[in-house]
């Protein structure tokens, strides 16, 4: 297990650089603050000449662990400064980050952060800085220790003031001292040269600082090279849509969703908590598909199949008939919490006057972008805090329910055969004994009493808003089926399934393979317009701004958007999802995530639809920087791809895709329709495959709703 962990940590510096500051965007809650630990005294570590040891006796500084420096002078390599330090063996195999400030009273108070770097078995780490001046004095203002690269909140931190007896002062060498130009960006760059080989080379001995330092310098250079690699998108101008059309489409398809669930969990006093937790979590969903009852458009009922993140859906406890538990055990809680359930459901839609024009990052839309909420339960005191900030319609006394509680169709948990599922979670650092692999995607069905909704809409403008929004969402799917099946669009197979069919990271890998190992052009409908990149990734959803969810978009006004969205640092492996449908269920992530600039939409936007410049849905928004403010859209955001054509294998290769292969993203899969066993030979579960199985069961709530807009002959 230690060897596996070493490989994960070292390769993670390379392949997860794009995601090192990214955390799962929990629907509306932020990570807990660092654990407050009492000061600990630690024996000094051997740290070389010029070492400085911080003493835990300061009343001004916040010091929780001992830090030692190898030298007070930073090294300069590959046009970067690096610092070697020791955080103590109790923080061995963790991730270390250092913050510096200029050692001058007249200097700016802003800190300069290092890259995050792993500590070895002794607690030694080498962190790298960009942007430091030569021949200048700095002091360490903070040292942060993280559990792993995925975390954005440290498990412990030291913070220091200037000019105290504990202050650690460091200096940078004069220009030319120990410097080299190995990382120079001058001259042309060919990403296919042999020197561009991310993740290659022998793994260093983590206990050998010199080897570790050389390894970090090399991968820093490779990171810079990957940033320069940005393939040009295939362009079919006649098929592109305007930005305002893309955002309008996303708005029409999207719903804010929330769960009022009962945990049925045992508390410390031994009592069972059977109270309803309202509006937890809230997030964003979008209409993936729909079905009229028995396939008849004149029916009184319609099933809406809504997609969202698995981490948004994680409190939809036992939202499936228990008769199906043997087929889908991963969708149920453990036996002791079998009574946990969704008590009622929250559905919200944007108002007609809502705007989606670009505004500067940090500024806010007006109240017209707030939402109209509907709850399929009677008003209750438990909703009092939500009523203060939101316009909510509750079920009236004696009134028929307009929409049902969610019923699980598909959650991307253990979607492959048993052998591949085990390979995925066993390949990870499995300290928590994970038995699940996951991708951050879920689909659920809600049954709408369409006849009753139309009746209420005739006299109530709020329900007219809900009716019009549902109609617009269904029309959007119909329009997409027609649009993408009539004309060939890049990275779509021209089927009636209007979603991405050939993902971009898989195409990066494919182009570097020998011809006899590349994807079959006929099978995957690959042509000259099949693209390695996109020009835009349009995203819109419902982040929580202050106390209310609001309609929001990416790409703020004044942002310098690249001509093509993806570069060599834009892809990472999907993160594991915690507490999916059970508070003790942990998972290992699989598949590719894509990261795009100017897209750090805040918590609550999790689950948003992502479309490209052709209006083709390509993914679902799933990760953002947890440190951004609620109106800050200037940072990167990430999304989960709906499909992966690449099948992991052991073949080595050069070129930019070497890094993607080292991610070990798992078998080929299609979250919407994995039924093509030639393309996805190991996949057993997807939206279509699950719906097909469910619709064949006696008394299934989906039996009469299997003929969908996408699968007209039945799933």
Automatic annotation (TrEMBL):
It comes from the Bacteria. Residues 33-57, 172-204 are annotated as: Disordered. InterPro entries: Mycoplasma_peptidase_DUF31 (IPR022382), Uncharacterised_MG067 (IPR022381). It holds the Pfam family Mycop_pep_DUF31. Residues 245-622 form the DUF31 domain. Coiled coil: none annotated. Residues 39-48 have a biased composition (Low complexity). Residues 178-198 have a biased composition (Polar residues). Residues 1-25 form the signal peptide. The keyword Transcription does not apply. Keywords: Signal. NCBIfam families: Ig_SerProt_MIP (NF045841). This is DUF31 domain-containing protein. It comes from Ureaplasma diversum NCTC 246.
